[in-house]
Amino acid sequence: MPLIAILPGDGIGPEVTAEARRVLDALDLGLSFEEAPVGGAAYFSAGHPLPPATLDLAKRADAILFGAVGDPRCDALERHLRPEQAILGLRKELGLFANLRPAKLFPGLEDASALRPEVAGAIDMVIVRELNGDVYFGEKGMRTTASGRREGYDIMSYDEDEVARIAKVGFETARVRKGKLCSVDKANVLETSQLWRDVVIEISAQYPDIALTHMYVDNAAMQLVRNPGQFDVIVTGNLFGDILSDQASMCAGSIGMLPSASLDGSGKGLFEPIHGSAPDIAGQGKANPCATILSAAMLLRYSLGMDAAADRVESAVTAALTGGARTADLGGTLSTAAMGDAVVKALG
Ligand code: ATP
Ligand code: MG
Question: In this structure, are 218 and 162 located in the same domain?
Answer without folding.
Answer: yes
